[in-house]
Specification:
158 residues; alpha+beta; Aminopeptidase; four-stranded antiparallel beta sheet; three-stranded antiparallel beta sheet; acyltransferase activity, transferring groups other than amino-acyl groups; transferase; RimJ/RimL family protein N-acetyltransferase; GNAT_dom; Acyl_CoA_acyltransferase
Length: 158
């Protein structure tokens, strides 16, 4: 039986995350990503900051011994927020839900927020399955789409 496993992010994981980010469809769905997802230097600098920041909790997601994504908690707009990314080759297998559930079981911070583009049905479904509820909406410029995008703000309470 295959299981999803979370572990500490290592420097060796970061190039794999970069490869995941190169997928145009994944960037479109994520919407609020890097200005230039092909800029390896900027990506490496961003992850060096993430790994050096004690306030950020980042985990690598493994499935069948393969790095398939990451999940992280950071502070945005003064609130703790969770984000995740799954390699598109593994979409639709329930890995995002399993990884987020595992992460939430290990991190007691509540309330915890998340954001997703209103048309990102897959991510909204993952968040719903994990107990997040919509508490607001926002609009922001989404680099992954090159336009303003509406997003839901979701919250998970204790």
């Amino acid at each position: 039986m295959s299981i999803v496993r979370l572990r500490e992010v290592t420097e060796a994981d970061v190039p794999v995350f970069f490869e995941h980010q190169l997928d145009p469809e994944a960037n479109r769905m994520a919407a609020f990503g890097a200005a230039d997802p092909t800029d390896r230097a900027a990506f490496l600098v961003r992850w060096a900051r993430i790994l050096a920041d004690d306030a950020v909790v980042a985990r690598t997601i493994e499935f069948d011994g393969r790095v398939v994504g990451h999940v992280a908690r950071f502070t945005q707009f003064g609130e703790p927020e969770v984000t995740y990314w799954i390699d598109r080759a593994f979409w639709g297998l329930g890995l995002a839900t399993a990884a987020l559930q595992a992460y939430l079981a290990s991190d007691p911070v509540r309330p915890l927020y998340a954001r997703a583009a209103v048309d990102n049905v897959g991510s909204l479904r993952v968040l719903d399955k994990c107990g997040f509820v919509a508490v607001g909406e926002d609009v922001g410029f989404a680099e992954g789409r090159g336009e303003e995008v509406e997003e839901f703000i979701l919250r998970l309470d204790a």
